[in-house]
């Protein structure tokens, strides 16, 4: 069985169908890219998987367990962590304390949480900034901190919601390296990104949403040549930018 399996999942907000009968599998060890235009339902799907919203219909299975409708804290304890499109860091706390909040997912002991947080900060390259207030970080470091907080919960699946948006090219290269390092450490990754130069090279498979529906799912080389995907999304994004290179 896949690590994560979403079956026939729908999420409605009143009359709006944000997720429309979506099936999705993420196998252990994969990096899966989730793409699609603004409003396609990517973040909503993350919210349904991670327990922030109950799905209207359908199921979510994780490690063979039906986790549909479980609250976010329980989903996190089972091993799913996510980052937020709009970073949710505690501005008036230090970088270290922010990461310790994540680490308290697995322990009540401050000393243990601190050890874990320091280890994660080192892994993410944030150690030199551990004592500064999170509000004073650059955008790139805030994104990195969001990442570190999620890792500190010790997930087996990490879901990244536009973790690289707003980064410059050099910062993007570093963020990609970090995602690869996460995968090498044994954590499976599901990632939402609009920057195709990021998604395509690192994803084993890419899933495309449009108006709440899954319109394609394949290896990156096939997805970038899929007519429906080009029409719905990639047309003016990936192909245009490639031509410009
Ligand atoms: N809590 C909510 N209440 C009502 N409508 C919502 C809610 N959350 C999302 N929606 C709507 O659901 C649809 C899908 O939104 P979602 O945020 O999942 O898209 P997205 O693919 O993440 O887009 P983006 O690329 O802009 O982040 C949109 O039409 C959005 O307005
Ligand atoms: Mg979104």
What keywords describe this structure?
four-stranded antiparallel beta sheet; alpha/beta; six-stranded mixed beta sheet; globular; binds magnesium ion; 2 domains; 40% helix; binds adenosine-5'-triphosphate
Report on this structure.
The protein has 245 residues and is α/β, with parallel strands linked by helices. It has two domains: 1-77 and 155-220, Rossmann fold, CATH 3.40.50; 80-154, no CATH class. Helices cover 40% and strands 24% of the residues. It contains nine helices and ten strands. It has helices at residues 42-49, 72-78, 95-103, 110-123, 139-152, 169-184, 196-202, 220-223, 227-244; strands at 4-13, 16-26, 31-35, 57-62, 65-66, 80-82, 157-161, 188-192, 205-210, 213-218. The strands form two sheets. The protein has a six-stranded mixed beta sheet with strand order 6-7-8-3-9-10, sandwiched between helices. Strands 2-1-4-5 form a four-stranded antiparallel beta sheet, with helices on one face. The radius of gyration is 18 Å and the shape is globular. The protein starts with a strand and ends with a helix. The structure holds adenosine-5'-triphosphate and magnesium ion. Adenosine-5'-triphosphate binds at residues 13, 16, 18, 36, 38-44, 85.
